[in-house]
Fold this protein.
Amino acid sequence: MSDVDLRRDGAAALDWAAGYLERVGQLPVLAQVKPGEVRSRLPAHPPEDPEPFASVLRDLDGVLLPGVTHWQHPRYFAYFATSAAEPAILAELLAATLNSVAILWRTSPASTELEGLMLDWTAELLGLPPGWHGHIEDSASTSTLAALIAAREATGRDVVVCSDQAHSSVAKAVRMLGMRLREAASDARFRLRPEELGDLSDVAAVVATVGTTAATAVDPVSAIADACAAGGTWLHVDAAYAGAAMVCPELRWAFEGVERADSLVVNAHKWMLTPMDCSLFWSRRPAALRDAFSLVPEYLRTPDAEDALSLSEYGPALGRRFRSLKLWAVLRCVGASGLRAHIRRGIELAAGFEEWIREESGWELCAPRPFSVVCFRVEGDDDRNRALLERVNTGGDIFISHAVLQGRYVLRLAVGQMRTTEEDVRCAWDVLRKEAAAL
Ligand SMILES: Cc1ncc(COP(=O)(O)O)c(C=O)c1O
């Protein structure tokens, strides 16, 4: 079928990967291309005859790399900075080698059972109650969609409540499901106000967020859980970014009440050193998930179904890839101590940057900082800050993003890349000050 030799070409691909990670810090963080440019450099039509794998590697370097925004770059500070650690990179190769498709327990017992165990391991590391059902979805968007489907099924209601700071995936799921969204106002610290929840007797689910997308605010989950219990309402907690921080006991204060959630999402592919895609979804009501999602056609019925758990009966997808392999590799090769060190390092670096902003006149902090994201702005109006963002990002030394908080445009520096050092954060601060002075 092809001339690819796994040992020879595989060695070259691994060599490419290792070389890339060694030099990624010298590349411009944000892709320096215009829309359509990458495509215009590639053939419009597929090849008729096989090409050697070396040609793929050559074009990865020559054609694609200039069009890559480097999420593995030590000065990637935009949105939520993520990392793919080496053990997980290797595990991705092995997962593709096995190419398991877990439509049923018997089509991939190892994938199904490792996934269950990895979710139990991670639940233990995060201090979650024992006994929850856990599985992996591709994204927090899908996990939240699944939670709302289960909530609708369990309650027979069709209203969803979240704060005005909740991630857009909540509104998107509500729209896709034809449900109705009610937004509760947040307070001056961007937290959902429980008194704004109102009467929950017609509400299928409340989505609380620990670590909101813009300001990483922490909703008061305990108070929200009280209101949900009184209203017979499903509580879904979105801790897509911040959930990883539960691995550190000193940060557990932020997650008080999460143990009372009906479902919870934490993205291992955000702050847990695991590459896309690996969204960890737990529920303490697996029967509700099964009621919502189990649909087994004749061709998938097997005699072992009584004892065997098929995870496709707990979520939207039938075919499921072996995602737990990379999480297993991270948990074993990094360990709980390594994960804690990673989270603490990110928070420490963000705290240092926050201090520099606090001490510099002409700059302003715009939100409390519970984790590793700093929201700030330079003196002047929104347009000045917007212009500053464009200047710093086009320079290629750093990549940061923005948010709008209480109607004001703010800049966001998100620490989370495993290669980021204090020198990199210092570089970001230098670039920001230099570009602000040049505005
Ligand atoms: C709080 C929160 N929830 C959900 C999401 C969506 O995550 P995903 O891209 O995995 O769907 C994000 C994305 O950043 C987020 O910040």
